[in-house]
Design a protein that fits this description.
This protein is α/β, with parallel strands linked by helices. The longest helix is centred in the middle third of the chain and has 18 residues. The C terminus is likely disordered.
Length: 567
């Protein structure tokens, strides 16, 4: 790895890439490519903002909050923060005002770079004269005297300020703040499925070593490749693999500047024609269910032939060619991470020869621990440990990890940090799995595993996959109820009515009968100790974390359930 970087800091990565790739395009916004930044222009803006922060008296090690959607200015801001020797606190835009207030208090934030639309979430940060507020939209510093008068998003977004990017660069000042490999680069607060937010402390080496190790192992990233960024940069998966990695390799990253709705994403893919994209499973699963399966089931002839393995593979390959064309026609790597991928969806992607890749990791591991490139995928498994990372199975089947990417710990939470590691220094992932011939398979989370009536281990994620593979099921959640396992099912009534040729009202009336048949069908695929006793309709969408995982802790005590779907 030393032949790529001889100093594992984000600042050195930027300097090296600027020298090596100079006038190549680094960052641009879809639809405004003419305003894109070259590597040299990017570094110039980064140094201007870093100089501004230093001149404002921001000391080395200061925690600086960064709140807003992925965009060029987010990238500039982050790189400037760490170039000034400070610590970035990337906050997912989906975090609520109370969550952000708690993060600010816990981390001691006195400087914030905030997008206009999220201005109401920062509370009283702008009421203290010593605090520093910068508007992410244009990277204008908003003085306290001006900020205290703002009463709305519009006033903040359009208000006066000082352009930090016009600051005269003082190279010696910036150089004097150059971080070391073991210095903190980020504290990333997670709002997990257990409901307990934690500040994950990641060093420069944690993040850059993970990017360097990913250059060739799963897919060879080549200079000039086009990356389309659709995930939040505050997510460690997008940050390391979708930002640091392409910058390291001289690639060109395109941002949407807005959440990736279908109306925005489709023309963007056609325009950019990306070589690389990263996604959470939810996106590709929606494409699979709403487009692929819906179209197949809507044609009686194709639906009949699809049940035969030979024809199924032929049909999937035909659909795969169409899907690759939809993604721009030159996609080489579609990385999927952040949550388990539905098995039926993965089987389709494999047979369709769609260039999907699987990644496994956690925020605490910056994030990648293991994965498989498009030519290495095997349905139902994760893939191989990342170069430099060692994985083993510990007590109770938990996956343990060691490597240069493992976090320092949780900020101001010594007890939690201690619990996260074994006595001999292995990081506890909290995931249960197997390592067979170095290939990693995940069974489920140790915190979600349910102990059966005779002491058997029950993995709710596996049962959920069985439900999710059934027609008209959008999503499901299996929890331990008072009388046995409870499955909460969210149905797609529009699709149900369309396929069964009935009205929306009739489809909803049929829900009880359909849920009962679902339970019987799924139980036939399970051992008796894993049988679902109760199935009930989940009318509202499940509440999710900002990284789109269901907040299981909100439903864990589900016991008083409806009787009509019991065995």
């Amino acid at each position: 790895m030393k032949e790529i970087l001889d100093n594992y800091t984000i600042r050195h990565l930027l300097e090296r890439s600027t020298q090596k790739f100079d006038q190549r395009l680094a960052l641009s916004t879809v639809g405004s490519e003419e305003d894109g930044l070259t590597y040299t222009a990017l570094k110039r803006k980064v140094d201007a903002l870093a100089t501004f922060l230093i001149n404002k008296g921001v000391e080395k090690g200061t925690h600086i909050a960064l709140l807003g959607e992925s965009q060029i200015n987010w990238a500039i801001a982050y790189l400037a923060i760490v170039s000034a020797g400070c610590v970035a606190l990337p906050i997912l835009p989906e975090f609520s005002e109370p969550e952000i207030r708690e993060i600010f208090i816990h981390s001691g934030v006195t400087v914030a770079i905030v997008a206009g639309k999220h201005y109401p979430k920062i509370g009283d940060l702008n009421t203290k004269e010593e605090n520093i507020l910068i508007r992410l939209d244009d990277l204008f510093y908003v003085p306290h005297a001006v900020a205290k008068e703002f009463r709305s998003v519009k006033e903040f977004s359009e208000g006066a300020g000082i352009d930090t990017l016009r600051t005269k660069i003082e190279h010696k000042k910036v150089e004097s703040r150059s971080p070391q490999e073991e210095d903190l680069a980020s504290i990333i607060y997670t709002s997990g499925t257990t409901g307990e937010p934690k500040g994950v402390m990641l060093t420069h080496k944690n993040l850059t070593s993970n990017a360097v190790a990913s250059v060739k192992q799963f897919f060879k990233v080549k200079t000039g490749m086009q990356f389309l960024s659709i995930l939040p940069l505050a997510h460690s998966y997008e940050f390391t693999i979708g930002f640091l990695l392409p910058l390291l390799c001289g690639c060109h990253i395109h941002y949407l500047n807005r959440p990736p709705s279908p109306s925005l994403l489709m023309p963007a893919m056609k325009r950019v024609r990306p070589h690389v994209m990263l996604s959470v499973p939810l996106l590709i699963e929606k494409v699979y269910k709403s487009s692929v399966i819906a179209e197949i089931e809507g044609n009686e002839t194709i639906a009949k032939r699809y049940k035969t393995p030979f024809f199924r593979v032929l049909i999937n390959r035909m659909v795969g060619r169409k899907l690759r064309s939809t993604f721009g026609g030159r996609l080489k790597f579609f990385g999927i991470g952040g949550a388990p991928l539905d098995l039926e969806c993965e089987k389709f992607l494999k047979e369709a020869r769609f260039p999907y890749a699987i990644g496994y990791g956690l925020t605490e591991t910056a994030p990648l621990l293991a994965g498989a490139g498009p030519k290495q995928t095997k349905v139902g498994t994760i893939g191989y440990p990342l170069k430099g990372v060692t994985l083993k199975i510990g007590e109770g089947g938990e996956i343990l990890a060691k490597g240069p990417n493992v976090m320092q710990g949780y900020y101001k939470q010594e007890e939690l940090t201690k619990e996260a590691f074994t006595a001999d220094g292995w990081f506890r992932t909290g995931d249960l799995g197997e390592v067979d011939r170095r290939r990693v398979t995940i069974k489920g989370r140790s915190k979600t595993m349910i102990l059966g009536p005779s002491g058997e281990n029950i993995y709710p994620e596996f049962i959920e996959q069985l439900f999710n593979n059934q027609p008209f099921v959008e999503e499901s959640l299996v929890v331990d109820g008072e009388g046995g396992l409870v499955a909460m099912i969210k149905l797609n009534f529009e699709l149900m009515g369309e396929n069964l040729k009935m009205s929306l009202v009739d489809a909803k009336e049929e829900a009880a009968i359909y849920l009962s048949s679902l339970r019987k069908g799924v139980n036939q695929q399970l051992g008796s100790h894993s049988h679902v006793r109760v199935v009930e309709l989940q009318e509202e969408p499940f509440q999710r974390t900002p990284t789109l995982k269901i907040k299981r802790y909100l439903y864990a005590l589900k016991g008083g359930v409806k009787e009509q779907h019991q065995e």
